[in-house]
Design goal:
With 198 residues, the chain is an alpha/beta fold. The chain has a single domain, classed as UDP N-Acetylglucosamine Acyltransferase, domain 1 (3 Solenoid), CATH 2.160.10. The protein is built from 4 helices and 15 strands. The strands form 3 sheets. Strands 3-6-9-12-14-15 form a 6-stranded mixed beta sheet. Strands 1-4-7-10-13 form a 5-stranded parallel beta sheet. Strands 2-5-8-11 form a 4-stranded parallel beta sheet, with no helix packed on it. A hairpin with a 4-residue loop joins strand 14 and strand 15. The chain is globular and about 45 Å long. Bound molecules: coenzyme A. The site of coenzyme A (COA) has 12 residues, from strand 14. InterPro entries: Hexapep, LbH_SAT, Ser_AcTrfase_N_sf, Ser_O-AcTrfase, Serine_acetyltransferase, Trimer_LpxA-like_sf.
Length: 198
């Protein structure tokens, strides 16, 4: 597994292009229907949404909040995917199909997360506090799932399609149902470091 903390690119340009390559590779890895790289760049709304988010986020953290929010809303207009620029998204997020995904302002998403269409990482409070979910690394969130409140979903977990999750779950959980119930599964092998050398 590549650790974000220990990854130190020498140049920002290197980091920029590496991020783009990683995002494309995440699509290839997550979608068996993916064709060539050029097809991925042209046709994957989830990829466009992640790139739109990265621009919006860069503006947001530089205190260009109005511009950041506007880029976010324009990206939503183009892709049907709304990622608030205040959300913290890890590396290689892949949003498959994408339409209807909402990721709220205080959500945190780890590395190598796979999200299908119709997923909401939403809040249940109108107070300006941490009110959205925290998602660990390598979590899969099935189509239509709603994760609500400042809950934590442990790494290597899977959330079933159309589940409604309102409670935290430890790593290696499988969550299904309304309200979702967690069962554990045997830990999976983590990605080998070579997996992401692209
Ligand atoms: C939750 C999920 C990861 C479980 O996978 P799994 O561990 O292989 O589970 P299984 O298929 O063996 O099913 C185990 C049990 O959970 C039930 N189950 C599976 N998915 C469920 C769901 N989304 N909601 C409710 N129950 C579900 C199964 O019916 C089965 O019940 P049973 O033991 O009473 O027969 C998977 O079913 C899922 O929902 N993946 C999302 C995929 C998706 O959104 N794809 C969109 C592609 S466009």
């Amino acid at each position: 597994m590549v650790n974000s903390q220990t990854y130190r690119p020498r140049h920002r340009v290197d980091a920029f292009f590496r991020t783009i390559r990683e995002d494309i590779y995440a699509v290839r890895k997550g979608d068996p229907a993916a064709l060539s790289k050029i097809s991925i760049v042209l046709n994957y709304s989830g990829l466009h949404a992640v790139w739109g988010y990265r621009i919006a986020r860069a503006l947001w953290v530089r205190n260009r909040k109005l511009l950041g929010r506007s880029v976010s809303q324009f990206t939503r207009f183009l892709t049907g995917i709304e990622i608030h620029p205040g959300a913290q998204i890890g590396r290689r997020l892949f949003i498959d199909h994408g339409m209807g995904v909402v990721i709220g302002e205080t959500a945190e998403v780890g590395d190598d997360v796979l999200i299908y269409h119709g997923v909401t990482l939403g809040g249940v409070s109108t107070k300006k506090v941490k009110r959205h979910p925290t998602i660990g690394d390598r979590v899969m969130i099935g189509a239509g799932a709603k994760l609500l409140g400042p809950i934590e979903i442990g790494s290597d977990s899977s959330v079933g399609a159309n589940s409604v999750v309102t409670k935290s779950a430890p790593p290696n959980s499988i969550l299904t149902g309304v309200p979702a119930r967690a069962r554990s599964r045997a830990p999976q092998l983590a990605h080998e470091p070579g997996d992401w050398i692209i």
